[in-house]
Design goal:
This protein is an alpha+beta fold. It contains 11 helices and 9 strands. The chain has 3 domains: 116 residues, Acyl-CoA dehydrogenase/oxidase, N-terminal domain (Butyryl-Coa Dehydrogenase, subunit A, domain 1), CATH 1.10.540; 105 residues, Beta Barrel (Butyryl-CoA Dehydrogenase, subunit A, domain 2), CATH 2.40.110.10; 145 residues, Butyryl-CoA Dehydrogenase, subunit A, domain 3 (Up-down Bundle), CATH 1.20.140.10. A hairpin with a 2-residue loop joins strand 4 and strand 5. It comes from Streptantibioticus rubrisoli.
Length: 393
């Protein structure tokens, strides 16, 4: 009878056994990239409230296959859903802003074009976006319409063979550095998506400042002032809210994994600190209360990773439902925030210092908790699925 392998504090459930060699190669590639290009500078970027060199970072992410990586063709990597999730986990272990850059590029802007665009739109945009040569953004949220996108007021009207697009979008990641925006607007036919080159007359994207979360991320408003677009700017394969909502479901899946990356970073910082910080003549990790915190953090962290892996396998099998994505987003982001807050208590006063990643991750996750569906929205999605009763209206 073979003996069990040794217990690994970094992988207490042995979840690494669930991964193929290719899965591990993807994970390790992204981990090495973040260690080289993000972790040495992220605290300074966060403190300054900027993401310098974002276009160069995008090209590097394209070079390692991280942009639109779960899409097929057009220069995309064609990776599995699990591999994309592992990449999101490693990116967000560095910073939520870096994962947001990749998620918006691949799971929102590129996904929308890939799934609902014409062949000409795919050929025009996807290869350059996959390479990081063009950054994309996704315009759905409006200043007065966040959780209820059906209330959007942005409007596109026909003028001859052209479209004229007017409106405002808010809290748009990558907005001011994007070369192309996928913008959703009302039309006489219903909600439609438009592929908008950001150099089009009437388009502007003022950057949003004074953020205390996602500070190392570009966040903008989109202003569309009678932007004239040709007839072929519309995404031809979808009408109605199912278009943007399906894109959001794809992006939320990445958050299920990514939030566990932020949680892992905080847990590792707390564990290392507990073993080295001495009080009352011994490491604080030797005290029962600290060990109880670490045990609870480890349980929720690895349960969350296991949940993400399960959802990834379902996505790869074509069996993942939007309600299951809501399940994962609701649980994992909520637990990730709690892990970060508990890690902060272990680090004491040092927990608020940017010398450690804990407070940065905790404040970032406050945004992740809200965007792409608040806690309340995902609770109502699950409540409707469980009861068959719609509580949204």
């Amino acid at each position: 009878m073979s003996s069990a392998p040794p217990f690994e504090p970094s992988d207490p459930l042995g979840l690494d056994d669930l991964l193929s060699d290719e899965d591990r190669a993807v994970r390790d590639t992204v981990r090495r990239w973040t260690a080289d290009r993000v972790l040495p500078d992220i605290a300074e970027w966060y403190e300054r409230g900027e993401l310098p060199g974002i276009r160069e970072l995008a090209r590097e992410l394209g070079a390692i296959g991280a942009l639109g990586m779960s899409l097929d063709g057009y220069g995309c990597a064609g990776a599995s859903a699990v591999q994309y999730g592992l990449a999101c986990l490693e990116l967000e272990a560095a910073d939520s802003g870096i994962r947001s850059l990749v998620s918006v590029q691949g799971s929102l802007a590129m996904y929308a074009i890939h799934r609902y665009g014409s062949e000409a739109q795919k050929q025009q945009w996807l290869p350059r976006m996959a390479a990081g040569e063009v950054i994309g953004c996704f315009g759905l949220t409006e200043p007065d319409h966040g959780s209820d996108p059906a209330g959007m007021t942005s409007y596109a009207k026909r003028d001859g063979t052209d479209w004229v697009l007017t409106g405002r979008k808010m809290w748009i990641t990558n907005g001011s550095v994007a070369g192309v925006a996928v913008v959703w607007a009302r039309t006489d036919e219903g909600v439609r998506g438009f592929v908008v080159p950001t150099d089009a007359p009437g388009f502007s994207a003022p950057e949003i400042r004074h953020k205390w979360s996602l500070r190392a991320s570009v966040t903008s408003e989109l202003v569309l002032d009678d932007v004239r677009l040709p007839a072929d700017a519309v995404l031809p394969e979808v009408t109605g809210l199912r278009g943007p909502l399906s894109c959001l479901s794809h992006a939320r899946y990445g958050i299920v994994w990514g939030s566990m990356g932020a949680a892992r970073s905080c847990f590792e910082a707390a564990l290392d600190y507990a073993k080295s910080r001495e009080q009352f003549g011994r490491p604080i990790g030797a005290f029962q209360l600290t060990q109880a915190k670490l045990a609870d953090m480890a349980v929720e962290l690895h349960k969350g990773i296991l949940l993400a892996h399960h959802l990834g396998r379902r996505m790869d099998a074509g069996r993942l439902r939007p309600e299951q994505v809501s399940f994962g987003k609701l649980n994992n982001v909520r637990e990730a925030i709690e892990i970060c807050r508990t890690a902060r208590t272990i680090l004491g006063a040092n927990g608020i210092s940017l010398e450690y990643p804990v407070m940065r991750h905790a404040t970032n996750l406050e945004s992740v908790l809200t965007y792409e569906g608040t806690v309340e929205m995902h609770q109502l999605v699950l409540g409707k699925a469980l009861t068959g009763l719609d509580a949204f209206r």
